[in-house]
Amino acid sequence: MMMFRFQKVCESLPFVMGNLVCTYVDEDPSKRDKLSLPLTDYLPVRFWAQKVTKHDVQLKWHIPSQDEIDLANELINLFLIKEIEKLNKPQLIKKLVSIL
């Protein structure tokens, strides 16, 4: 069970790190709110190919804050650094494999 949890944390870590430290287009909150409406009130496919001019598009960017960068560093130190250090001690890896 513990190995399963550890594996799931490892699988989700790249996505968490990407959200914390990457610059990306932040979705318009009003669009997100519409997605929670019933399909009878808002059908998203009607807007997928909607024409817009470049002057109508206003992008809002997510730029990582210092708190997000600090949290990413904490996560790296908590999960990644310890595992890398284990790679430098092969005798410890063999013991861990026999336990699993």
Automatic annotation (TrEMBL):
List each copy of the Proteasome activator Blm10 middle HEAT repeats region domain by range.
19-89
Q: Which domain of life is it from?
A: Eukaryota
Q: What is this protein called?
A: BLM10_mid domain-containing protein
Annotated organism of origin: Anisakis simplex (Herring worm)
